[in-house]
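On clarity, I found the account of how folds are encoded harder to follow than it need be. An entry of this sort, consisting of the sequence and the corresponding backbone structure tokens, reads as follows:
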Amino acid sequence: MSIGSVRQGVTNPRAVRTLMKRGVRVFSRASLHAKFLVSDRMLIASSANASTNSKEILDEAGIVTTDPASVQRAISFFDRLCTERVGREYLKKCISEYRPPTFTPAIECGRPRTKRSGRVVEAKLWFVGGLVPLNLSEKTRESVERVERRYKKRLTRSDETEVTWIRFRRRPGFLQHVRIGDWIVDCSKTGHRRFVGPPMQMLGLDEWVSERGTRYTMMMLETPTEGEGMSLRDFRRKICAVQPELDRGNPRTRAIEDNDHADSILRLWTVSGKIVKSRRA
């Protein structure tokens, strides 16, 4: 929170004022770039800023640890950084000098500006919506079965699971983030009703060409043989408090990035894909 940073809009002193009014002691340090939190016996260290860019665009990394030695070293390091406390008079000066940021991102010389790449999404569960069951001809069925046979060797529980797939005419962007082993819960429409299938696991992606020469991307899945689907209505009722974004009449494909939320959804089924019956008092 140097005067120079405040004049460039790098730090907003009004946000700092809000913290100070709540009793937070604030310090400034010109060379500061470290980002970590110590809470009780836990240390969180990360490359991320508290910003929309870090949340939605940039690829960040971090660790969470309760290792006592690491926590104590972080506290000692933090204490050594706190040498320039921000007082009320200096805060007033910063507020008067503050100017909102007006800079534009730098462009590498000699290269045209390209579209910004999306951030890498890490999620162990993906909800895939907007699907419709297919009626395949006998010839098409035989062609697809050849692809299925290649993936049967990858089944981890071949006595309880089978190979199924979801095909895409145009490869959707989310497929670049899905990893082998990720869980998939799909929603398909039959007639006027929608059903949510049991959790499946990603075996891999494959390319398949129809008899007409149309190319499809195939998401190959390990699916419980005796798995049970539930109506979208029941699914919404069970997850509305956990994942409200899916509480819709036609939920869209999305990553469930919160592991606790993902676990809550997966626990709606047993390991064998059976629907867990609701417990009543």
The radius of gyration is 26 Å. The longest helix spans residues 138-152. Residues 125-266 form one domain.
